[in-house]
Amino acid sequence: MFDREDERVVEESGFTDTGTSPTRSPDWRQLDRQLRGIARRRAALDAEEARWLMLAQQTELHRRFGYATLLEYLERTLGYGPRAARERLRVASALQVLPATAAALARGDHAYSAVREVTRVCREDTERAWLDAVAGKTVHEIEAMVAGRKPGDLPGGPVDPEEVRKTLSFEVSAETFAVWRDARLALELERGEPVSDDEVLRTLCLDRLAGAGARGRTAGRAAYQIALMVCPTCERATQDGGGAAVEVPARVAARARCDARVVGRVDGDRVEKATATIPPRVRAAVIARDHGRCRVPGCRSSRWIEVHDVRPRAHGGPHTMDNLICLCGGHHDAVHVGRLRIERAASGETVFTHADGRRYGAAPAEVMAQERM
């Protein structure tokens, strides 16, 4: 539906409102004006829809029609699949506390796709900074600005690699889907716990890089055969992948330092001698002692085993057998983010605990208290 100004432009440019196409080619300026007008009206419609969506959610409108959820109602009435519907509801909820962003969408200053990304990180005290920063940017540029930032962060602030997620989308055959599920189940049985898509895909990729059917690298060789570069000043790390340097969280570099081959500085004329963080013969002995599997109680993983120094070398930990232990990638990661603690008791026993001090695998105190009631 056109407003009065749009109708005048249509008439001047030779458009006939037949619902199909113009009778003759319009002037390019007028055509651009028409398309920009459509974009403004579409943004205003998105803003209006957001307001009605919140009212529909608050009044549980879907129940009036016998639908089980609001998502079902939105799919049947607006054509949104579950994922798109959840995003629309998230954005609508965010706009209730972001008045400047809601107004910008209603005026058509920003498209819905831009507002969708901004609302992931924007708060009322930062929305003006974000709206100014994304002005004139494409959706792709805005996605890059938002990636790695948390709600409340400013657009020019540092990016936390831990918060950056990459999206991969695959269309596969039924056969491939079946073997993917089998591979996931096999990994979960090996780990003894559920695994994420990220863990499944990472394991499959590492297996391929190691060679078809390989259990991992040779016992005397460091587990990390990927290229990591760590800035000696700020400690930020990047990992090379297919010709691209991808910034990774600090925990990835910390894991690599435990069990890696170090080539030294690569920004000078002098080439340093490559060294292993763990001597090959010591690593081989640790692998043999731990039977090539993760030592965490209950873990059955024997794939892509890494050697971890219980007392870090940076804190004076030695390269001795009693300070080294085999861990799978998942548990090694848990150690370096603080969710799992490993210590050597005076008796020589290796003690595994959760971050709150519980023995590994023990139920939380509140759960145990409820069971005793």
Describe the structure.
This protein is mainly α. The protein folds into 2 domains: 4-161, no CATH class; 174-354, no CATH class. 43% of the residues lie in helices and 9% in strands. The chain has 14 helices and 9 strands. The protein has helices at residues 4-13, 28-58, 70-77, 82-95, 99-107, 112-118, 127-134, 139-146, 174-191, 197-210, 250-258, 280-289, 329-336, 365-372, and strands spanning 228-230, 237-241, 244-248, 261-262, 275-276, 306-309, 324-327, 340-344, 350-354. The strands form 4 sheets. Strands 1-2-3 form a 3-stranded antiparallel sheet. It has a two-stranded antiparallel sheet with strand order 4-5. A two-stranded antiparallel ribbon has the order 6-7. β8 and β9 (350-354) form a beta hairpin. The longest helix is centred in the N-terminal third of the chain and has 31 residues, at 28-58. The chain starts with a helix and ends with a helix. Residues 1-13 and 212-217 have low confidence and may be disordered.
